[in-house]
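Rotation project, supervised by the postdoc (A.L.). Task for the rotation student: set up a whole-complex structure prediction and record inputs and outputs verbatim in this book. Inputs entered:
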Amino acid sequence: MSPRPWRAGAGLLARLPVWARCAMAEVKVKPEVPDPMDIENRIIELCHQFPHGITDQVIQNDMPHMEAQQRAMAINRLLSMGQLDLLRSNAGLLYRIKESQNASKMKGSDNQEKLVYQIIEDAGNKGIWSRDIRYKSNLPLTEINKILKNLESKKLIKAVKSVAASKKKVYMLYNLQPDRSVTGGAWYSDQDFESEFVEVLNQQCFKFLQSKAEAARESKQNPMIQRNSSFASSHEVELSMEDIETILNTLIYDGKVEMTIIAAKEGTVGSVDGQMKLYRAVSPLIQPTGLVRTPCGLCPVFDDCHEGGEISPSNCIYMTEWLEF
Amino acid sequence: MTQAEIKLCSLLLQEHFGEIVEKIGTYLIRTGIQPLRMIVNDTGLLLDQVKKALCVLIQHNLVTYQLQKRGFVEYEAQCKRILRILRYPRYIYTAKTLYNDTGELIVEELLLNGKMTMSAVVRKVADRLTETMEDGKTMDYADVSNTFVRLADTHFVQRCPLVPEIPESPDAPPPPAPTLVINEKDMYVVPRLNLVGKGKRRRSCDEEDNGEHKAKKQKQDGESSEPPPDDGIYWQVNIDRFHQHFRDQGIVSAVANRMDQTSSEIVRTMLRMSEVTTSSGAPYTQPLSSNEIFRSLPAGYNIVKQVLDQYLTLLADDPLEFVGKSGDSGGGMYTVNLHKALASLATATLESIVEERFGSRCARIFRLLLRKKHLEQKQVEDFAMIPAKEAKDMLYKMLSENFVSLQEIPKTPDHAPSRTFYLYTVNIPSSARMLLHRCYKSVANLMERRQYETKENKRLLEKSQRVEAILASMQATGAEDTQLQEIEEMITAPERQQLETLKRNVNKIDASENQVDETIFVLESFIESTVRRP
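Outputs recorded:
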């Protein structure tokens, strides 16, 4: 080949072999094709970077050459796998990384179950009633029941009987401690009112106050004051000041104790808002009254009794018994 | 007038005055004010009988009369006054505690006779006392008069209204019924009488003296044929004053139960000082300064002024609110809250009735409702710390017996039951009235039972009376012991047993009637105090 003067452009191309010429013609300026797995991993990394959640915008900024369709596909895949949380904020949609162990739990569940689980989780301490779950999730009742049974068997949620309405069951997460308003606080154990416990405490407080009153009577005549806080070791429950106050209130309603409020300095034990409640044992105002010392005062058939009838004073069996004392 | 009250009144009248009086009294209570003609027509009794019965009733202040405009007289029965007959034993007992036997007999005589002149009372009481005294001793009229004067000074007896002094006008015919008037000032003024003499025994044991006594008696009768100096001035028992006294007793004992003996003595002193200055319906006593109280304390109590002041402050600060402080002059002015005290006593009575009938847990719920006024069912369970099922049961039981009532507060205009609040509440005056009615019926029941028991054993009682009469007459004629023994054995041992049982039962029923009457008193005073408030 004689050396020809080099001419740019067509000549060069013409001198290439045919196969190279074809390949060159097909090559365009193509953006690099990211692997779908890479997209997802990148998104996950971004999520880890921004634990509060990332918007669509952030992902787009990071990978500007990704098409919207591919982005959406990746995000959907991550969501369905349960690795991302979809949240809505006023800026738009947010994607947040989900905790890994929960993610593993929910692997086998479907969307509806996840939704229900989310609602129950949001209810927190107080738990939520099945009808409320239905309102929030708009799912039919049968579906809800199925899902709840499913979740319970997986030990993700538990049913706690409410002390207010004994037929009502509220659902909450398995590891949460039910709130006081549901279980009734210190006076309930396993949804049963502990009446004996209350009675015992009642008696003890009263005896304590009575002995104080006795001691006071020996010495001076000033009114006695009393404040008491105690442990109840048999029940493994600590009693707060409020609990003791409810017990003392029942003693007031029994007429055995009276209460006064005095102004107290801030900082003294038991003072609330500059006031302190003082309790004192008292004896009843009058002896049992005259009416109840006769059979008529306590008679259950009093209204049916008249002279000449089946039940009359002349043949009253209660009177006969009473006269034989 | 409720059925129970009418029944009780008729039983009381029958027991104390007999069938005819009872018939007329019951008729008047049922039909209200009636003239004489109507009474005669409707009861079917003779005019003479009706007149006499009305006289008896008027004498005892149980029936009053009024002159109508048309010129005839109408009669009205005082139902409340008739119910007071139940309380006569308590009045007599109070007089005994305050003024010893003399006072007791004076009050008893006045109650039994309705109205009497002072001289008649003194004479009778002296005679009765002389009988009980040992041989040879007699009761002086002066002692009895003194006690009478003391009773009048403390307002336990009062003068009856008198016929006013009208200048004689020969033209106008005298009115068919006089209108009696009494001057406030004169009500407790004792006329100056020179009652000299001693009590006489009714029977003399000595036969020889009989002849002499007979002669003396005739002379004395002749002397006493002239009218006594205080003719026309009749005295009667002042029931309101006794009621005041019972109320004071109740307050003092309540204070003693709640606090200690010394505080109750202080309250008693305060009440004693206000006895004659405060009217019986007043809500508070007159303010008393602490200095006055200190001076009036009974002699036995040597407490220092400061201690008294401490006690008064304690009483004023107590949640009971029986004593209130009304000012600071004179070392602190204190009053006794009478209406509040009556309300507290009535509430305590209600609570005790609930406690005895339904149990102490029901009583707890009852007191809770009294304090908190209106509560929902859930709240009741929470506050009273009673399991829900039991609390519900108790509330419904009390509701069915009308101790507790429901107040509905609807949320929607259609009053749908599922959307209404139901609040439980206690209405004290209405509960008090309900219990008062029950008390009346209970007393009527007790009286009927007593009469029934007596009637059942009538034969036995008559027999024992006959035997006693025979014994007495034989003793008088000087029989031998063996004969007396024979007569006594006419009553066999089981019969004697039966008589013993009967006596015991009758006494028991009597005592319990008095006890129920105490409850009646507390409830009635409370209801009166709520009614009088404007």
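Student's summary: Chain A touches chain B at residues 164, 187, 193, 195, 198, 217, 221-223, 246-247, 249-250, 252-255, 258-260, 282-286, 288-294, 296-298, 302, 305, 307, 312-314, 316, 319, 323 (CB under 8 Å).
Supervisor addendum: Residues 248 and 254 of chain A are 10 Å apart (CA to CA).
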